[in-house]
């Protein structure tokens, strides 16, 4: 099969290559998926660049997310079958075979059935962004019904699905963006109130809409501390899913006074039971038609270097390979 691989970490143009390698067979508890879409997340290029770990022991096929069709089922797998359309998450986590290839072998639970009518583009967009959004919101729809949620960066991948999942659960959603173009994307996802944080009076505008929020899905804690604390109160939970170049200094007294809870989310370390609950919520939302794909930029597998560089340079929407 054709696959993008790297054998050492470094710049995309220096270490990524498309090669012919042997298609793997699924082992116990695994399935093999014929990949139709391979989606790229920021952690994919950061891992390849060596920012999050070490060189692979032999080679690594990158990319955690994607969509495709199961074409082989390993022993002991009873709830997946050949011919089933699926969306993938965490494919390359602890696994040599990510989705940047014609075929991927992975644990069966990481290949989630895609319902009839759901597009491959939507399936490829889900994965890490949607499951991260679910975990930030605690995969607890009943608690969100009637709640107010603030989503920082509503035009980003996690922000997009945080908006849609919160709305699906019955919350009202405020989001912050950096441009009118991104504001339109957030409105299309269902945000009730959109604020450009680069304009003067952003905090006052948010507080004018809601003096206190119940949940905050945060992409840049240091940059947004003043806004978060301005609308936080007893019971407010701030879930932080991304880091910044410099660690923020926390104003401990202000946090204590607000009685807010600060929680950090990195999907790769989430407990299996919690991860399963997150995936189940996303799966249900897809089946209900509540989630939509991000605007997509597509590349061929041979253009994996350009595709990863596009994500590294901050592309808006979802960049994906079509093998």
UniProtKB/TrEMBL annotation:
Matches recorded under SUPFAM superfamilies: GroES-like, NAD(P)-binding Rossmann-fold domains
NADP among keywords: yes
Domain named Enoyl reductase (ER): residues: 12-321
The entry's keywords: NADP
SMART domains named in the record: PKS_ER
Superkingdom of this protein's organism: Bacteria
Keyword Repeat: no
Name of the protein described by the UniProt record: NADPH:quinone reductase
Organism name: Actinomycetospora endophytica
């Amino acid at each position: 099969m054709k696959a993008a691989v790297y054998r050492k970490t470094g710049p995309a143009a220096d270490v990524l290559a498309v090669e012919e390698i042997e298609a793997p067979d699924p082992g116990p508890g695994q399935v093999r998926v014929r990949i139709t879409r391979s989606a790229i997340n920021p952690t994919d290029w950061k891992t390849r660049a060596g920012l999050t770990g070490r060189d692979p022991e032999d080679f690594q096929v990158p990319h955690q997310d994607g969509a495709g069709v199961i074409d082989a089922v390993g022993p002991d797998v009873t709830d997946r079958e050949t011919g089933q359309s699926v969306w993938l998450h965490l494919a390359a986590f602890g696994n040599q075979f990510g989705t940047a290839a014609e075929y991927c072998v992975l644990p069966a639970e990481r290949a989630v059935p895609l319902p009839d009518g759901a597009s491959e583009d939507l399936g490829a967009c889900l994965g890490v962004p949607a499951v991260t959004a679910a975990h930030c919101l605690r995969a607890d729809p009943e608690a969100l019904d009637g709640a107010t949620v603030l989503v920082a960066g509503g035009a980003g991948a996690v922000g997009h699905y945080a908006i849609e999942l919160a709305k699906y659960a019955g919350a009202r959603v405020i989001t912050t963006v950096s441009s009118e173009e991104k504001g339109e994307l957030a409105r299309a996802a269902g945000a009730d109130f959109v604020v450009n944080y680069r304009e003067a009076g952003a905090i006052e505008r948010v507080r004018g809409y809601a003096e206190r929020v119940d949940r905050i899905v945060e992409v840049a804690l240091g940059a947004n501390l003043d806004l978060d604390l301005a609308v936080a109160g007893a019971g407010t939970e701030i879930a932080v899913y991304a880091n910044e170049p410099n660690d923020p200094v926390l104003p401990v007294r202000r946090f204590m006074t607000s009685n807010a809870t600060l929680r950090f989310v990195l999907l790769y370390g989430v407990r299996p039971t919690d991860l399963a609950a997150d995936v189940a919520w996303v799966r249900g939302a897809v089946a209900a038609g509540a989630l939509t794909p991000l605007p997509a930029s597509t590349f061929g597998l041979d253009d994996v270097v350009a595709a990863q560089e596009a994500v590294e340079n901050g592309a808006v929407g979802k960049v994906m390979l079509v093998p």
